[in-house]
Amino acid sequence: MANIRNPLKWRPSPGVLGALLGLMLIIGAPLSTYASEDPPSKVHIYFSAGCVDCWPYVEQVMVPTLRAGGISAEVEIHDYTVPAERTRLLEMADSIKLPRSIADSLYVFVPLHQGQLVILGHVPPELIEQVLGSANLPPRLVIWQPEMHGDPTEYRLWAWAGDVVTFDINTAFEEALPEVLVSQGRLPVGLANLGQLLPAVIVTGLVDSVNPCAFAVILLLLAFLFTIRESRKHILQLGLVYIGMIFLVYFAIGLGILRAVRFSSDPHFVARAGSWILIGLGTVNLIEYFFPRFPIKLHMPMIAGQKTNELLKKATVPATVGVGILVGLCTFPCSGGVYVSIITLLNAKTTLGWGVGYLALYNVLFVMPLIVILFGAGNRLVAKRWARWEREHSLKIRLWYGLLMVGLGVVMLLWVIQ
User: Fold this and answer.
1) Where are the domains of the chain?
2) Distance between CA atoms of 278 and 255, rounded to whole angstroms?
3) Is the pLDDT of residue 211 over 60?
4) DSSP string of 231-251?
5) How far apart are CA 24 and CA 20, in angstroms?
6) In the prediction, which pLDDT does 243 show?
7) What is the pLDDT of residues 131-157, one digit of tens each?
8) Is the pTM above the cut of 0.70?
9) What is the spatial distance between Cα 169 and Cα 166, in angstroms, rounded to a whole number?
């Protein structure tokens, strides 16, 4: 009979033991690496305390729907109006390379076995259930429902490639998903950048350029230079210096406002506030037209006007730089409502980089009529006629300017609350 060795008494030789140990190290290496990672184990929900509908939605819809969909992870709820929580939200979004332009008043970061699901806005529970029940989810997916009021009409999907794709709210998730998975291209730099914001920037920039304050001073400058019989070359030189300073001052003001509003925890609230400021300043212009003795006027202060006249008489480059700075600063109260509104809209709708680019374009458009006036006033007679026309029609210009300001404020307000 063959001898059978008792397995309990078997001892491996040193060579076999070394081979087994090496094999275990080879097999165990990826396992130990995986174990050392700390995959997300919590659902993080970020909402704004200024959103009256967000908390009821989180408590009554979002959390129950996640539980019903099999998400058992602990839920942490954060109010991102608190600066520390806002910072944490941005860090979490940046860690998964979620573009700042893909934003809403409500963020839900859901860890899944295959990756990360991000839910933005008030997504209907039926859609969330379809997403959680899908077997075809990509490693990362955003589902986004941007409408805050009324019945939703659409939703959006993005899988970290190509553009954000919009679908009718009645489109089943499994039907929409294939179109998103084949989408290719660079990451979106900002939803509605060229399609929606560019026309808004162009229109508001041109409207703001019809500015009685800046118009009056450049016409006064041209008329004065022709009176003292300066050469056309010198006139163009001083005129371009003046316009350049207005551009720089106004652009610097815009950058400061843009940086300031980006610290706000609720960019949509800031945009709404900017729209109301625009409506308010436009109303002041209308009141001034119908009631000229109304005490509140959006004009250049008398002291600044006197200083401007003093500098104009010198007809030198340094003096013209001073005029440009004064007019740029004093123009802001005169027409700043339009400027503040478009800046707050840029803050709410796009990234900082694109916001600065749009701001530069806005200011180019803002000074464009001044450049046209400068090069169009080729002789003393034309310059004096333009100056006289501006004085005679300044009140009507203020009327139309006020109407446009109120109209733009209403349009922007309706756009932001969508």
Assistant:
1) 42-181, 193-416
2) 18
3) yes
4) -HHHHHHHHHHHHHHHHHHHH
5) 6
6) 86
7) 999 988 999 999 999 887 778 999 999
8) no
9) 9
